[in-house]
Amino acid sequence: MREDLFPFSGSNATRESFMEIERLASINELIAGIIHELNDPLSAILGFSEILQSIDIDPEIKKYIGNIHIAALRSAKIVESLLTFMKKKETELFDVNINMVIRQMVTLFEYQMRTRNISLSVQLSPDVPYVKGDSYKLQQVFFNLLMNALQALETWDGERKVTLSSEFSDDLVKVVVSDSGPGIPAGDTDKIFTPFFSTKPKGTGLGLNIVYGIIEEHGGEVSVTSGENGCSFLLRLPLAEGSPVLACGKRAGTAKMNKKILLIDDDDLVLNAMSRVMEIIGCSVVFVKNALEAMAELQRGDFDIIFVDYSMSDMDGVEFIEKASAFVDMKKFVLITGDITLNAEAFKQKYNIPILWKPVGLKEFKEVISSYV
């Protein structure tokens, strides 16, 4: 470290602290680059696996494809965890079926639970209404809680059971995730959500802190109860505005997906996967690889929604949106990015348009497209 940058005299501990800050800054920069490089291929894997699952093919092959899709989702969760921890991803709120989010996460853990002789019970009320939320972040909540339960039971000699339940009561959606393990030591329940506090020998102390932060972002609450045996986490989430309670969690008047879409991305794999996924849900898609071609398409035809990649070789997505908005309604644009250096809060305050964070799957496209009535 250059001493002229810190001309004061300080202890060795002070100098080591500054060196640690520099090291952490370098690590953050490295992680940001890795995330950016991973997001495009992950989007392609998710997209193509969803495409293949929609085709009438041999059931055994479809099973393998399903495994590929699950593996891609797990990888996306790792990226999501990094984004959440680094505080670079803004919460994107849409109407979310919480039962569907839970089932997706349960699918990831069924094999691990089964091979460890842990029984998994899922008791979801069919009358749970939608919540306003970010589906990826809510998936992260249940991923962390299920991983916490799995780790608690791995070396437990007593009953080995994990239970998830949902219900609608007191104008709130309530979800309980519980396990029959050793519970939390007396006196530690008040500290369980504190950053870097862990009751596990090799725990990072970040998982439950992330859960707490995400639920708080959603306007909800999370609490924990524990006895000599067992531990339960209770999540309380507010409803989406105007969300009626209907059988099986379905809502009336879901928007049809028959939109005309322009998709702009300079990565062939991502472009092909995303355009095909959009076609599967009933959209008409025109896709181009650069800003110049996109401008020409916008002048030739009228589009309902325009998806623009943030990092393009000839012009970044924000500059493109600014130029195109001279003759296209700004509300038609959606920015897609895997670059966590983007200041999402400043962007949304200035332009008031949605941001989709890569990797992007079928569910995320459906949520955004259905919001364009």
Write the SSE topology.
Layout: H1 12-53, H2 59-86, E1 94-96, H3 98-115, E2 119-124, E3 131-133, H4 135-153, E4 161-169, E5 172-179, H5 207-217, E6 221-226, E7 231-238, E8 260-264, H6 268-280, E9 284-288, H7 291-300, E10 305-309, H8 317-324, E11 333-337, H9 344-351, E12 355-357, H10 362-370
Parallel strand pairs: 2-4, 8-9, 8-10, 10-11, 11-12
Antiparallel strand pairs: 1-3, 4-5, 5-7, 6-7
Helix pairs in contact: 1-2, 1-6, 2-4, 3-4, 4-5
Please state the overall shape, judged from the principal axes of the Cα atoms.
Answer: globular
Number of structural domains:
2
SSE string, helices as H and strands as E: HHEHEEHEEHEEEHEHEHEHEH
Main pleated-sheet profile? 5 strands, mixed
Polypeptide structure, described:
The protein has 373 residues and is of the alpha/beta class. It folds into two domains: 12-88 and 254-373, 3-Layer(aba) Sandwich (Rossmann fold), CATH 3.40.50; 94-248, 2-Layer Sandwich (Heat Shock Protein 90), CATH 3.30.565.10. The chain has ten helices and twelve strands. It has helices at 12-53, 59-86, 98-115, 135-153, 207-217, 268-280, 291-300, 317-324, 344-351, 362-370; strands at 94-96, 119-124, 131-133, 161-169, 172-179, 221-226, 231-238, 260-264, 284-288, 305-309, 333-337, 355-357. The strands form three sheets. A five-stranded mixed beta sheet has the order 2-4-5-7-6, with helices on one face. The protein is globular.
